[in-house]
Design goal:
Blueprint: E1 13-24, E2 27-38, E3 42-46, H1 53-61, E4 68-73, E5 76-77, H2 83-89, E6 91-93, H3 106-114, H4 119-127, H5 133-149, H6 165-178, E7 183-187, H7 195-210, E8 214-218, H8 222-228, E9 231-236, E10 239-244, H9 246-250, H10 253-261
Parallel strand pairs: 3-8, 3-9, 6-7, 7-8
Antiparallel strand pairs: 1-2, 1-4, 4-5, 9-10
The protein binds adenosine-5'-triphosphate.
Length: about 270
């Protein structure tokens, strides 16, 4: 597990993706992908449909094992760790299709999130085993703070399934934050949001960065992605075709060609 730390200039990376390969039958979904995420930064991971973005998320979170390569988190390889062990280290995510406990209230969803860092805590929270009143009160306070952070304080008692879709997305972000992540993976968080909700989401993501949390964002809304990201990584057909600051990537010919080929331009939206 120790390995040799790569000497870095500037901020140490929290996540290093090294030469990762993943194939599904004859499809090379990831082809020697490598890049690093600096601490407290926002990286936008973009690319046309089928580029490999979701596959990379699944490799980072441990849902899929790569065929080759390594993922290092805070300086150590996480290759052999299970999903829940990666969560315990501080890797949290949201899902493309919101995955909340619909019959639970907004508050209860956050309370579950607060205990996902330990397996025992997760099971305990699911079974609602009694804990001390003090602990219960502290957890509720923390959960309310998180609801407040995403603007849902007044809806704590509402069933999450009854909330408008845009609010469910915010609730999912709050639940992921409840796990106190060091790295937050956001999978198309703006999908289904209107313009004002998207604006609110962008502010929220920047606020999360200012708390020292690193963000990897997969998002089809290019104006959001380009306006909040420090770094953009572009995948196309499993290969990394560009990496750099938003403006440089928007002007990159290979990127434009990849998007034009798919009838969507990264400078549009
Ligand atoms: N479980 C799987 N079995 C077979 N092929 C898969 C599987 N998952 C992904 N693929 C293929 O791998 C490639 C990359 O898919 P992936 O979902 O990672 O792309 P993406 O960039 O997330 O696309 P989108 O923007 O459409 O979500 C595609 O060709 C896809 O069809």
């Amino acid at each position: 597990m120790s390995g040799t730390a790569k000497p870095m200039t500037g901020n140490d990376p929290i996540l290093e993706i090294r030469d990762v390969d993943k194939a599904f039958g004859g499809v090379q979904a990831l082809d020697r992908i490598g890049f690093a995420l600096e601490k407290a930064s926002i990286t936008g991971l973009i690319g046309p449909n089928g580029a490999g973005k979701t596959t990379l998320f699944n490799v980072i979170t441990g849902i899929l094992a790569p065929d080759a390569g390594d993922i290092r988190f805070a300086g150590q390889s996480i290759e052999n760790l299970e999903v829940h062990q990666r969560v315990a280290l501080g890797i949290a995510r949201t899902f493309q299709n919101v995955e909340l406990f619909e019959s639970m209230t907004a508050l209860e969803n956050i309370l579950v999130g607060l205990y996902t860092r330990t397996r025992a805590g997760m099971i305990q929270s699911m079974l609602r085993l009694p804990r001390t009143r003090q602990e219960e009160a502290r957890a509720r306070d923390q959960a309310m703070e998180l609801l407040n952070f995403v603007g849902l304080r007044d809806y704590a008692g509402r069933k999450s399934g009854d909330l408008p879709f845009g609010w469910q997305r915010m609730l999912e972000v709050a639940r992921a934050m409840a796990a106190q992540p060091r790295l937050l993976l956001l999978d198309e968080p703006a999908a289904g949001l209107n313009m004002s909700e998207t604006g609110h989401l962008g502010e929220l993501i920047k606020e999360i960065r200012s708390q020292g949390i690193t963000i990897l964002l997969v998002e089809h809304d290019m104006s959001l992605t380009m306006s909040i990201s420090d770094l953009i990584v572009v995948l196309d057909q499993g290969r990394k075709i560009a990496e750099g600051p938003p403006r440089a990537v928007q002007e990159d010919e290979a990127v434009m060609a990849a998007y034009l080929g798919k009838k969507a331009n990264p400078t549009n939206d």
